[in-house]
Structures are given as C-alpha cells and as structure tokens.
Amino acid sequence: MSVCHFPESFLWGAATASYQIEGSPLADGAGPSIWHRFSHTPGTTANGDTGDVACDHYRRWREDVAMMRELGLKAYRFSISWPRVLPEGKGAVNPAGLDFYERLVDALLEAGIQPMVTLYHWDLPGALQDLGGWANREIVNWFGDYAQVVAHRLGDRVPLWTTLNEPWVFTIIGYVLGEHAPGMKDLWAGLKAMHHALLAHGEAVARLRTLLPSAGQIGIVFNLSPNHPASDSEEDKAAAERVQTMNNAAFVEPVLKGRYPALAERVLGYAWPPVHSGDMERIAQPIDFVGVNYYSRGIIKHTEYGYLRARGVANEGAQYTEMGWEVYPDGLYEILQWVHSQAPHLSLYVTENGAAFRDEVHDGWVADTQRREYLHQHFLRAHRAIQSGVPLKGYFIWSLMDNFEWAHGYTKRFGIVYVDYATQERIWKDSALWYQQVIAQNGVEGC
Ligand code: FCB
User: Fold this and answer.
1) Selected catalytic residue, list 166, 253, 334, 405
2) If pLDDT is split at 50, 70 and 90, which confidence band does 1 have?
3) pLDDT tier at 214, thresholds 50, 70, 90
C-alpha cells in the first residue's frame, strides 16, 4: 500500500463553533444567545450542562492557535458569536466582540493558518428570539446587517466565508422537534424559519460580495446524508425519498437552483411558508463553494407518524459511534457525488466530519483507535471523490477538541484533542498525532 496523495493546495483543517468552545458567553458586553438561555433551562441538556465555561477558548485562544500550528493545520473553521458583536442582535455594535475575533484571525494568519468564518452556528441573540427569531421575516435584514458589520472589520483578512451552518438542523431540530434552542415544537414556525434562513443566506451573500476583496470566497454549509430505503417495498422507498427531499434537497436546491423541490411542497404543502415574488432569486445568489457536513447515513422506513411519515432504523451488525450514528464511509463519497451533480461548477469542502467515541486518558495517552480508523476511511472516500473529478478543496475535522455537544452537553467527545474539563488541559489523542502526519505527507495510506 502506498500513500494516496491529495492535491498540493488541499486545505487540511479542523472545525469548532463559538458556543461549543468559547465559554464566557456574557463577557465584555456580549448579550445572551438562545443557547445560553436554553442550556440554562432545566431539563434541556445532559446533566444540565451549559456553555458557561466550555473549553475556555475565549481566554485560551492563544494556546489553542499554538496547538493548531503544531498540528500543521492549513485552515481553521470557527464561528462568530452574533450576540458578542451585536448584543441585542441589531442596532448598537459591541466593538469588544469584534476585537476578540480580530485578534484570533490575526493570530491564525500569523501561524500560516487560513481562517474560514461561519457567520451563524446557532447562537442567535436572545433579543431576536423575543421577536420570533428565524420565524420572523425581518431576520433577513438583521442577518444581512450583521454580516456587513463583520465583513467591515474582517473582510480584508478572511479568505473563506460561510453564512449558515446546517440550516436544516437549527430550523427543524430547533423549531419543529424542540431538541435544540429555541426548543419549539411548531412545524409552521419551523418551515417559516427554513425559508427565512435561506433568504438570510442570500441577503448575506449579496452584502458580502460588495464588501469583500475579489479573492474572498463565499459559501454555505449543509448537513447532508444519503438516505437509503430500509427495504425494497414501495412504501419504504417513498419514505426515503421524502427524507432525502426534505433534509437535503429542500435546502440545497433553493440555494443552487432557485426552487424548492416539488415533492417537499406536495408533502408539507399544508404548512408551507409564504414565498414572495423575488424570494427565490434572492436565495439563489451565486456562491463560490458548498460546505458538506457528513457523519452518517439514514436507513429509512415508512411509518404513519411524524411530519414525514418516516423513521430511521438501525443496521444490525454495523459499527456505531457514541452518538448512535452508523459508521458508513461510503456515504461520504455518495453525498459528495450528489452535491457535485447539483452544481458541477462549484468547489466543495468537507466542512465537518468526525466521530464521538468513549475516550479515556491512561498514563497521559488517549488511544482513540476507532476515531483514527473512522477518519482514515473517510479520507480515502474523499480521495476517491477527487480522483473521480469532484473539486473538493479541503477537509475540516469535527472537531479540533472535545466541546459542548449541544443537548448532549459534555457527554460526547468529538475532538482529536482531549479536553480535561476540570483543568482545561488539552491532551492530544492518537488521532491528533496521526492527523499531524497525514497533513505533513499530504495523504493517507491506502492507494
Ligand atoms: C453538527 C454540528 C456541530 C457538531 C456536530 C457533531 O451537526 O454542526 O456543531 O455538533 O454536528
């Protein structure tokens, strides 16, 4: 076996998000986010965990950038906390919030690491939720204004921008299923939130275009999975098709093609949000790349319940991560091919991929063989996709370090670096040492 080499300019990276790592959520004039409120509401997160301290990255960012440099990262994907920049979500800017991200960006550039900024990774200013949050159409302008404020300060230095992280997750899980902030269970509000989020994306793209230098690249990040029918029955095939349409196509097609898939409107027409004239053009602003977050696939069975009359079932005998997600590397290849077929001219990035396993420290070491193997298998599928002509430009591991895994609190560890939450010590897992080598040789064994 020899090394499968990646293209010379391939961006090996790692990803994080503000509320999951920063801690100090109210420091230096920041306003509370919906995740701050949600996690402080009893019964919402495992063990009542909150992001109050998290990885204390807000204070330890220098140390963390030094760690990234040592790993050899070419790029780092992180998100900006909207309520640090605009404590009320709109109106008065809090310069101290922007100062924090400016220092971080400068330190990354100094370390030779390209920053990829996510403008929204779920920490909506609480003050905007009081006005309806994503279910209020006004958010299109609120988000546009926020994007503009950030681009004014960082636009000259940040080469890679994404608007939203996983709009399906924060609208459907947040507004329809109620498991994420703001914890609502309202299909009508959720579908409005979906449409407004897509409009807000388009608005931000338009605003960024006028502010960024021509080299600035703009994209959006989707959570995407292949969804396979559990059997050959027509019912299961139709159920898988509904899930594929609502979870993937209903987000990807408007952005790339300026239309909602007909099946989504047919299935959920009774709750479909009002689409004004001009909306679809606004959503489909030209972008430069698509970010794909991939973790697993769905195996879908028909059921009479739920808004899609479909449910996921297990694959007996397969390997599962601590999240209960099937390890299915071929799905990465499949989904990259699918996105590429939707927009053959666009660059792609894997903006998240990784796995939670039960990590333990023994004599100062974390032997996370399963995570290393998970990443290895997925890197090989990415390599195969590139060989077949997919313009994949980079790969960001989720995550740089263990962090606050939303409703699961600190019970799930996704990092290639272990965080001892009692001391805030960062301990490199085996996968981090291995990744350092992958980056150094720009490839993985297996060709
Ligand atoms: C994704 C999120 C990310 C992290 C991973 C495990 O859905 O974007 O913040 O929680 O899942």
Assistant:
1) 166
2) confident
3) very high
Contacts of 424 (CB under 8 A, 6+ apart): 55, 56, 60
Q: What are the tokens at 389?
A: 């002509």
H helices present in 72-223, as ranges: 82-85, 95-110, 126-129, 139-154, 167-168, 187-211
352 is catalytic: yes
Report residues whose beta carbon is within 6 angstroms of any ligand 1 atom.
Answer: 17, 20, 165-166, 169, 223, 293, 352, 398, 405-406, 414
pLDDT > 90? residue 140: yes
Task: Report the distance separating Cα 286 and Cα 416, nearest Å.
Answer: 34
352 alpha carbon – ligand 1 mean position (Å) = 8
Pocket test for ligand 1, best of 45, 353, 398, 402 (most atoms within 8 A of CB): 398
Atom of ligand 1 nearest to the CA of 406: 10
Say how many Å lie between the CA of residue 68 and the centre of ligand 1: 20
If you measure from the C-alpha of residue 40 to the centroid of ligand 1, how many angstroms do you get, rounded to a whole number? 20
- List, as one string, the DSSP characters of 165-176: E-HHIIIIIIII
Residue nearest to atom 10 of ligand 1 (CA): 405
Query: Ligand 1 mean position to 325 CA, how many Å?
Result: 13
> Is the CB of residue 201 less than 8 Å from the CB of residue 273?
no
> How many Cα atoms within 13 Å fall on the side-chain side of residue 149?
26
Has residue 99 got a pLDDT over 90? yes
Domains of the chain and CATH, by start: 3-445 (3.20.20.80)
Between CA 124 and CA 274, with CA 278 as vertex, the angle to 5 degrees is: 60
Q: Are 265 and 272 in contact (CB under 8 A)?
A: yes
- Examine the residue annotation and report whether 316 is marked as an active-site residue of this protein: no
Instruction: Provide the 8-state DSSP code for 283.
Output: H
Instruction: Say how far apart CA 167 and CA 185 lie, in whole Å.
Output: 16
Question: What percent of the chain stands above pLDDT 70?
Answer: 100
